[in-house]
Structures are given as C-alpha cells and as structure tokens.
Design a protein that fits this description.
The complex is a heterotrimer of chains A (509), B (323) and C (331). Chain B has 323 residues and is mostly helical. Chain B contains 15 helices and 2 strands. Chain C starts with 15 loop residues before the first helix and ends with a helix.
Chain lengths: 509, 323, 331
C-alpha cells in the first residue's frame, strides 16, 4: 500500500554511512517509512540493523547521508531530538522501571502537572487508562506494578509510552522474540490499530512468517549494505532468505569426506524451561551436524543445556554410550564437551585479560599440578595456539580485547580445543568474521572431524550450514522439526523447515 | 601477574612498568623521609614493633584482596573480629573450654561467619555490599549480646606468646603473617584458584562459560575472610591480653584502604598480594609517623580516610585515561 | 474482561483501600500491636512518660532516616551520617557556648550538613566512585577529625536558648513536630514532585531514566544534599535535647538509620520505598529497644536484633524480587 506520490514519507533515510574503529557498520543505506505502513527490516545479526536504528533514534550520528522527517532534512544530535521529532524506539531489553506503576512508567519525565507544579496522579491515571482503552487493552490496569507483569504486558507498556509522546514513527526491535503466541496475536492487533492511526512502523524481526502477516514492505540489509526492498505481496520467503544470506560461495567450505564413527552424544527428550521442549539428537564421531533455525528457535538454549549452564529438567544424555548427568559446565568439560558461545565478548572472552590467559582459561586443570599452573607449559600452549590458528597478535601478552573479531574467535575456539574435547558445540562460529578467518575456521572444523571429534554447529548462515554439515537439523520454537542428510539438504527445504513448511499461520488472529 | 597492567610495553623491563614498583619507590622514599625526620623511627625495635602492630589488619587484608579482585567487598570483617574475640573469651571462661580448644572455636566462628556471607551471596544472590553491611550489624550485635559488655581477662600465660612474644627476635604474629603473605601471594599468582579470581572479576559470565566454578570460588574467599578475621581476633586478644566486645571496630577501613592503596582496583579484575603488602606497610607507616610527631591515635583515621578516597580517585582516573 | 476496579486516588499506587496491604500499614499495626503485647506483660511500658521518651528520644533517627531512604532509593548508600551528626552536634554546641546567636547555632548544622553530603554526592555521581568507598572514607575523616580537634571534650554550659527541643508547638514537643513535618513534607515531595520521582527512576533503572529525560547525576547530588539537610535537622533535634554534648559520634547510629529505612520498605537495590515507612520503622525499632528493657531482656541484645532485622529484611526483599521476575516469565 503506497501513499499518494505527493506525500513525503514520515521518515526517509538516504545513503547513510557509519564507521566504527575497525568496522564499517553501514555503507550507503537508504530506507523510508510512510504513514500507516509497516516496513520490515531484515538481515542477519551484524548486518547493520541495530546501527541503522540507533542512528534514526538519535543515539549515533551518521558519518554521511541524510535523515528527513516529513521531507525536511533533520539532524538528531541526541535521543531527545529524535523523540521530539516523533521517533520512538522499543528495544529488545525493555527500558522500564520495575518498581513503578504502569501509568508512571508511561509518563515518567513528562507527567501531567497540577497547580504548583506538582504531579497530578489523577490525570495521569486517567490518561493512562485512555491510552489503554485506545488500543483496547483490557487486562492491564494503570496502577499495576510493572515488575510483576509478563513480558507481553511490559511490551505493551512500552508501546503506550511511545504513544504518550505522540510518536509518529515507531521502531520495534525484535518485538516477538520473548513473547508467547497469544501475546504475538495481541501485538499484531495493536500494530493494526497503530497503522490505522497513521503511525509508521519499522519492524525488525527474523521471523519471516510474521513479516508476511504484518508488513507492507521489507528491506534487506547484508554486511552493512542495502541489498534491496520489496513489497511483501510481491515476494516470498525463499527470495528474502536468498537476499539475506546469499553470498558468493567461493570455496569457503573445503569439506572433505571423513569416516564417521559411533555416536558420541545421544540426547533423548531434553526439556528445559522455557526454550527447550523435548529435543532428541545424536552426533557421531567425525560428524558435523548443522543446527539451523531462525533466531529465537532455541538453538543456543539447547547448547547451554548440553553444556550444563542451564541443566536439563527432564531427559537424558549419553556420552559414548554411558549415561551422564550434565549439571554444570565443569561436569560437561570433564566429560569432554566444549562450547564456543554465541556472544564472543560477553560469554567467550575475558577481554581485559591477555591472549595467554584467555587461551588457558578452560584448560587450567590440565595445565597445573596440585593447583599450580605450569607457566612454561601454559605459554607453550598459547604460542602453539597462536601459531596453529594464525592469530594475529604482537605477542601472547597482548590484551585480548584489542584483537579483531576473527582473532578473538580463534582464541575462544583454541581455548576449548586445548582440552581435546570429544564433542565440540559451536554457536555461530563465524559470525562477524572476515572471509579469510572464516575459511580457516572451516578448515579447522574439517580437520577436527577427521580426528574423530563430534561437532554440533549452530549457524544462521544457510550456505555455511549446507556446505559444512553431514546432517542438518532444524529447530523451531524449541523443538527439532526436521532432519536432512547431506544430499537432501537444500536451501529451499531447510529454509522451509526453518520457517514452518506450511504458509498458513499457526496463530489465529 | 597484575592482569590489568598492559605489559606489552616496548623496551623497559617488565618490573619497571608495574604499579607495585611505583608504590614501592614511594614507600622507600617515605621510609627514608620519616627516618630522617625522627631518629626514633628507623630503629630495629620500632620497625619490628610496627610489624607486630600491623599483623591483625594484614591477616584480613589478604583474603580481602581476593574478594575485591572478584569485584566484591566484605564490610563485616571488623565485626567478625569482635565476634570471634568474644567467642574466644566466652568459650574459655563460660564454657570452660581448654584454651587450645577455645582458640579453635574462635577460628571456627570466624570461618562460619564468613561462610554465611559466602553462602547467601552465592545462593541467594544478595549483593556482597549489602550482605556484609547486614552481617556487620548482626555480628557486632551478637558480640555485644554474648559478652553482655563484660571483658574477659586472665588467659594462660603461654597464650600471650602469640601476641607479645618473639621467635628469633621477630614478633610471633609477624612470622605467621609473613608465611601467610607468601602463601596468599603464590596462590594468587600461580594457581588456578588465583587465575579464577581475576577471571571472575574481569568477566564473571565468561568465567562461568569457561567452566570455572564461580560459586565455589566465591564461597571459599568469603569463608577465608571470616577465618582471617578469627585469626586476627586471636592475635589481637593475645596482644592486648583482654577480650572486649568492641574489638575490631573500624578494621574494615584499614583493611580496604590497604588493599586499595596497594593498587587493587575497587571495580575488580586486578591487584596483587605484593601490592597489598605495600599498602599495608604504608598505612602502618602513616600511623607510626603521625604518632611519633605527637598526633593522637584518632586523627590517623582521618588520614587513612583521605588516603582511601584519594587512591580510588587516582586509580579510577588513570583507568579512564587508559581507555 | 472488566478492568481491575480502581478507587480514585491521588497517589502512585491507588486508593486508600490499596494502602492497607502496604508496608506502611503493616508497620503501623506492628507498632501498635507490640505496644499492646508488651504492655500486657509489663504495664509500665505503656506509661505516658515511657511512650513519650521513646518518641522524643528517637525522633531524630526517624528524621535522619528520611534522607537516608532517599539515598538508598536512588541506588546508593551512606555510612557516614552517624559521624556527621556527631560533628554537627559538636559544631552547634560549640557555637552556642561561644555565644553565637541562636539562629546561627541552629542553622549551622543544616548548612554544614548539606555541604558535606553534597560534596560526597558529587564524587559519587560525577567521579563515579562507589558510594560505599566515598562514605567509608568520609566516615573516618569526620570521626577522626572530631576527636582530634576536640579531644573528646564534653560541651557543657549550653545556654538555655539553645534547646530547641524543649520548645513545643501547641503543646506538642518540638522533636515530634519536626519529625512529623519533615516526614510529611518529604513524602509529599517524593510523591508529587518530578524531581522526587526522578529519584525513583534513577534508582530503578538509570539508563531508562536518562532516556526519559532525567539527569541521573544531578539527581544523585541533589539526593545527597537533601540527605545532608535532614542529617542537620536530626542533629538539631538530637543535640538540643542534651544538657551535655559529648564530642563523639554515637556508635552504630548509621546502622540504626539504615535499618529504619530498610525495614520501612526501602529496597536496598533502589527504586522503591517511602519515607513514611522509614519513620514508622524508626519508631518501631525504638519501641523494640525499649520493650526489651521492660521484658527484662538485656539491652546488649538490641544491636543483634537490629542486625538480624536488616538481614532478614534484605534477604526477603531479594527473594521477593526474584520470585516476581520468575513469575513474569511464566506467562
């Protein structure tokens, strides 16, 4: 649905560029939103979506390019400027005050005043109730304490807060990531009403099925660049996926056949609230099992169950035929399981520490006798690691946080390989890494498989999954929904399984 | 190794660039200055006596270094000293424990007090600051309640050797302190336990994901803190021959000041035992110097308070500049 | 589905009915209930003289707890207030003995209190030094400074005009008047003024507060300054009741004040709590202390009780938050 040509879009971003030290986050991206439109923004993590959003919300300033509001060029020097221009953002980590009421959360900073400058609680409550009513939200009261509300409710409070500022452009960042199906339906309902009011909505989500239900247009970003825009009615999921992940597949995946041995991991019926619902899988020695799925399908959560960070509530795990209890990462490591986490900076690496100390962090037990670390052995191991993984650093004493993303990832990988694990779980191993480092990591994976290591690889990059895996498992909403062997794993089949093979929505509106 | 120091420097030998070296230089200068100013200062007698006096704070400063490196804090140490001292007297006098058993009991109480801190901090996840303020109040109150403000005197003579005696001319408790300093320093520097402390203080999440047992480590350090407080209490009672319920009052200031002055960042992730020792000596120097110039005891805490704030300020702005 | 019935009210949490389940109501019940129970065991507890003593002698704690509550709500803490009150009392008394005009002796602690606390607030807010470290250092500076300057000398021969606490307003003793007035004014401010709400926002979620247009740094400095004002006010009530001012800091005062705030419903994690609660809690604690004497429990157990109170309240608060957060996920 396009507006009459003479109407300027509410928000128009033209050729915006943004560079951070060492990384070009956005290169020449353009994007616009019209009144009453839902424009979806699609792209993998690291594609530049959040940078674009932060620029539009006034958190960052673009290095080049323009922002136009109602056709007029504007400059947002701060988030307040953006807010005043009618731009409101609802982030994934909701920014609410848990101890205050719904009404106060909505109106904090601009509460209605009575005589003498004092806050008028009566009017505030009335206005809050009016806002609730305008979106037909009947199960929230203005004086409930936000901290006791479910995520769905809290999100609605955030939306109301945006409306209380007369937002005309609403940006929603992964709004359904933590919602139940019922909440998602309510959300779509609200989005519909907002559309009817002429609010322009920027909708960021990985869930393609949602986009097809609610968005009018979709723009795809990849590696900081604009790939293309489509009217939702004129495209399909396969095309979008191709736009998101399609890369020149230059021999990035030197996969060679490797003898596959007996099962290393056999998991049956794993359950862990709230994201793992009855998962069973097997990984064999020398095998690379790719775990595909959309963001939020529960893959990292499954990995953390297998690694003992959030132990399984039900179900059993067998390692090399022996039943084991994995109730802590220590236990997992002792049994030969290694996990290279998704969030490198927070979960994988201790940035203030040196490369040397990061390399040895998971293998301290092996490197020490009676608790005393053998420093010479530690240094040898780190230097060997730097050599083997081609980590570009001036010395092993360099602070790890100074290295590039690819090199940091190699350290995290290397630290776990020092333990000679039998099962290696990789969570987005090549995200945010340059092509050269990617190829090295893939080569490494094949080598390890050749040595008999069982590898479970979680990845959002379909070509990587398809290229590297002996088998592909697909997860959706906490369950395994499909399994393909190497021959039958095609991007259409896997993509379809990721999104839900039938086009009809399971959620009734 | 002090992790936070960027040792990837060019040219100069590593020990020249470290924080502790700077402190040691300041310390030596201060020693010389004080010695020149007052000829009673640089006598062996005086120095050994200062060593004796600083043991109680020194013992507690060792596990406190561990705790602050992990980004935590323990404000209940002074109260634990008081409680252990009271328990020492109470168990000996009222329960009739033989003295050695009473000593063990006092240590046990200290360890238990620390364990409670560690348990609640790791299991119930109450932040260390808040938990140890609450136990500061509770343990001090228990000390008062159990003792009913009565002092205990008349311990067996041999007991006083610990606090007042010498071995080969060195005060007994100082020897103990030195041994423990070496153990603590080596543990922090060279063991997996020490490495885990730095990791937890720098990035606790990554430490957990690296399969380090964070909770057990924290439990250990808070228990050690309580034990050290108990030991300090025993030494203190032995030194002053009496148990009073207000013992240990204000210790937390001295201990934290020693640790922070020694270069340990209050935000966690860096620090060494050697630095803490230097901080400890500097504080004792301060006290001694002030005393020798006729300043009364109470005024010294003013100086220590200023030193604490200043050193955190300086460390924090240096850190900011480095980023 | 019908909306949850809301009684009209001018307050953040709704009508009078809703307040009955709140911490403040519980405290009020506890105060009265305890008096009844102890009075049953030992009727002399209920003598007017005793009840008046409890109230008058401890009103200053309630007043100081008002400022402390605000500091804790903003997400910080202060352990220097006990020492500060000692210093301010000495300053005030010394001025009185030196012949300064009465108004000056009364204003001095207020002004000085604001100055000292605001300085700490600046260090905490702008230099980003944790409040515990700053106030720990300041505590020593004040405590040690007081002793070394005065040598612990007692201040006697205070002029009659000094004793503000002896005055009364319409028959109500001044300490009570000030306590009630201070509580009411502070409560009104925390509930009705945007800067009061800013304190809750800063303590609840400083990042979100900034995005709402609140300036967390300025809020913290202001909170510390007001805390200093109330500390000065508390000093006035405290010092002007005494015939002799000892130049020492009342021991454990800051702990009692913190306990009053925490038991009064202020969460030690920040973002929630009221000053009415802390005043009631201060009264309750004073009542408990006195009650112990009347039921023949040694007064030396008071502090243990106080410590146990903080511990239990803090743990309960943390557990409550965790349980509430977990429930939020379930739906």
């Amino acid at each position: 649905m396009s507006a009459a040509p003479s109407t300027a879009p509410l928000l128009d971003v033209r050729n915006v560029e943004k560079t951070f030290p060492g990384v070009r986050a956005l290169t020449g991206v353009s994007f616009d939103v019209r009144a009453g439109e839902v424009h979806a923004l699609l792209g993998e993590n690291g594609a530049g979506k959040s940078t674009l959003i932060k620029i539009v919300s006034g958190v960052y300033q673009p290095d080049a390019g323009e922002i136009l509001i109602d056709g007029r060029a504007t400059r947002f020097a701060s988030p307040e400027d953006a807010k005043r221009a009618g731009v409101a953002t609802i982030y994934q980590e909701l920014l609410l005050f848990p101890e205050l009421t719904v009404a106060e959360n909505i109106f904090l900073g601009h509460a209605p005043r009575a005589g003498g400058g004092r806050i008028d609680w009566r009017v505030m409550r009335a206005k809050a109730e009016a806002l609730l009513a305008s979106l037909e939200i009947n199960d929230l009261a203005a004086d409930q304490i936000v901290g006791a509300l479910s995520v769905g409710h809290r999100q609605r409070v955030e939306i109301l807060r945006a409306l209380s500022h007369d937002a005309r452009i609403l940006i929603m960042d992964e709004p359904t990531a933590a919602l139940t199906e019922g909440d998602v339906t309510r959300l779509f309902d609200i989005v519909g009403r907002l559309k009817a009011r002429g609010v322009g909505i920027v909708y960021i989500s990985h869930r393609l099925d949602e986009l097809f239900e609610i968005a009018d247009r979709v723009t795809v970003l990849r590696d900081g660049a604009y790939v293309g825009s489509r009217q939702v009615a004129d495209t399909n999921a396969a095309e979008l996926v191709q736009m998101m992940v399609g890369r020149r597949i230059e021999n990035l995946f030197p996969k060679f056949a490797v003898p596959i041995g007996g099962p290393v991991l056999e998991a049956r019926g794993l359950v862990c609230h709230p994201m793992t619902k009855d998962v069973s899988l097997t990984v064999r020695a020398g095998e690379i099992v790719g775990l595909a799925g959309l963001v939020g399908s529960g893959r990292s959560e499954l990995a953390q169950v297998l690694f003992g960070i959030t132990p399984a509530e039900h179900g059993d795990i067998q390692l090399a035929g022996k039943a084991v209890q994995i109730d802590s990462p220590e236990r997992a490591r002792a049994r030969g399981i290694a996990y290279v986490p998704e969030d490198r900076g927070v979960q994988g690496l201790v940035r203030p520490m040196s490369v040397l100390h990061n390399f040895s962090l998971a293998a301290l037990g092996a490197l020490s006798r009676l608790g005393f670390i053998d420093r010479a052995a530690e240094r040898r191991m780190a230097e060997a690691g730097v050599q083997r993984f081609s980590v570009k650093t001036s010395s092993v004493d360099e602070v790890a946080g100074r290295l590039s993303g690819g090199n940091q990832q190699k350290i995290v990988l290397g630290k776990w390989l020092a333990n000679n694990p039998k099962l290696l779980i990789l969570d987005e191993p090549t995200r945010g890494i340059d092509v050269g480092a990617k190829a090295e990591i893939h080569r490494l994976m094949c080598e390890l498989a050749g040595e008999g290591v069982a590898i479970l690889m979680i990845s959002s990059e379909l070509p990587e999954v398809l290229g590297m895996s002996d088998r592909v498992l697909v997860m959706r909403e906490g369950r395994l929904v499909a399994e393909f062997d190497r021959e039958h794993a095609t991007s259409e089949a896997v993509g379809a399984a990721m999104m839900g093979s039938d086009a009809t929505m399971e959620r009734a509106a | 190794m002090s992790i936070a120091t960027d040792t990837a420097a060019r040219g100069a030998p590593w020990w020249l660039k470290r924080h502790e070296t700077l402190l040691a230089i300041i310390l030596i200068l201060a020693l010389i200055g004080l010695g020149a100013f007052n000829n009673r200062f640089l006598t062996v007698d005086n120095l050994l006596n200062q060593g004796r006096l600083m043991t109680e704070i020194g013992l507690i400063a060792l596990p406190m270094t561990f705790i602050i490196i992990t980004g935590g804090i323990d404000l209940s140490v002074g109260a634990t000293v008081g409680l252990s001292a009271v328990m020492l007297g109470y168990s000996w006098k009222t329960f009739g424990f033989p003295m050695p058993l009473a000593i063990v009991f006092a240590l046990f109480i200290g360890g238990l007090a620390g364990f409670v801190n560690g348990f609640v901090i790791t299991r119930i996840k109450v932040p260390p600051l808040i938990m140890t303020i609450a136990t500061l109040a509770l343990y001090r109150g228990l000390a008062e309640g159990v003792s009913q403000a009565h002092s205990v005197r008349g311990y067996p003579e041999w007991f006083y050797v610990l606090g007042q005696g010498d071995i080969f001319g060195v005060p007994t408790q100082l020897l103990i302190l030195i041994v423990l300093i070496v153990i603590a320093g080596v543990a922090l520097d060279r063991t997996t336990f020490g490495r885990a402390l730095y990791a937890i203080g720098s990035n606790e999440t990554a430490a957990r994901f690296s399969a380090l047992n964070v909770d057990r480590t924290k439990l250990i350090i808070y228990t050690l803190s309580g034990l050290a407080s108990g030991l300090a209490a025993v030494v203190l009672v032995s030194r002053v021959t009496t148990t009073r319920m207000d013992m240990g009052m204000g210790y937390e200031l001295d201990v934290i000041a020693a640790v922070v002055l020694g270069g340990t960042s209050i935000f966690g992730g860096s620090g060494t035992i050697w630095g803490t020792v230097i901080g400890l000596v500097m504080i004792q120097l301060l006290k001694n110097g002030l005393a020798l110039t006729g300043v009364k005891g109470d005024a010294t805490i003013v100086v220590i308070g200023v030193a604490l704030i200043l050193s955190v300020l300086i460390a924090s702005s240096l850190q900011r500049r480095r980023e | 589905m019908s909306a949850i019935p809301i009684t009209s009210a001018a307050g953040p949490r709704g009508g009078v009915l809703r307040r009955f389940a709140s911490q403040e109501a519980l405290l009020a019940v506890a105060v009265i209930g305890l008096a009844v129970i102890v009075g049953f065991v030992n009727p002399r507890f209920l003598a007017y003289r005793n009840l008046a003593d409890i109230l008058l002698g401890n009103a200053y704690i309630a007043i100081a707890a008002i400022g402390m509550s605000m500091v804790i709500v903003s997400g910080n803490i202060d352990i220097s207030v006990g020492a500060l009150i000692g210093v301010l009392a000495t300053v005030s008394g010394s001025l009185a003995v030196a012949g300064a005009p009465t108004a000056v002796t009364w204003l001095a602690p207020l002004v000085l209190g604001v100055a000292v606390m605001a300085a700490q607030g600046v260090v905490v807010a702008y230099l980003r030094i944790p409040a515990i470290v700053v106030t720990l250092g300041m505590l020593s500076i004040l405590k040690g400074g007081l002793i070394s300057v005065t040598g612990g000398k007692w201040i006697t021969d205070l002029p009659q005009s000094f004793h503000l606490a002896d005055l009364n307003v319409l028959g109500v003793p001044m300490p009570v008047v000030i306590m009630v007035a201070a509580t009411v004014l502070a409560a009104l401010r925390m509930r009705y003024s945007p800067s009061g709400r800013a304190v809750y926002a800063t303590g609840g979620n400083a990042e979100a507060a900034r995005l709402c247009g609140v300036n967390p740094q300025r809020t913290v400095v202001m909170v510390f300054a007001i805390h200093g004002l109330f500390a000065g006010l508390a000093t006035l009530v405290y010092a002007t009741q005494l015939r002799v001012i000892q130049s020492t800091t009342p021991s454990g005062l800051e702990l009692t004040i913190i306990t009053a705030s925490v038991v009064g419903g202020v969460s030690i994690l920040g973002g929630v709590g009221t000053v009415v609660g802390s005043t009631l809690a201060a009264i309750l604690i004073a009542e408990i202390t006195s009650a112990l004497v009347f039921i023949n429990v040694s007064p030396y157990w008071t502090d243990a009780l106080r410590g146990g109170l903080i511990l239990v309240t803090v743990i309960a608060d943390i557990l409550r938050r965790q349980r509430r957060a977990a429930r939020g996920w379930k739906k």
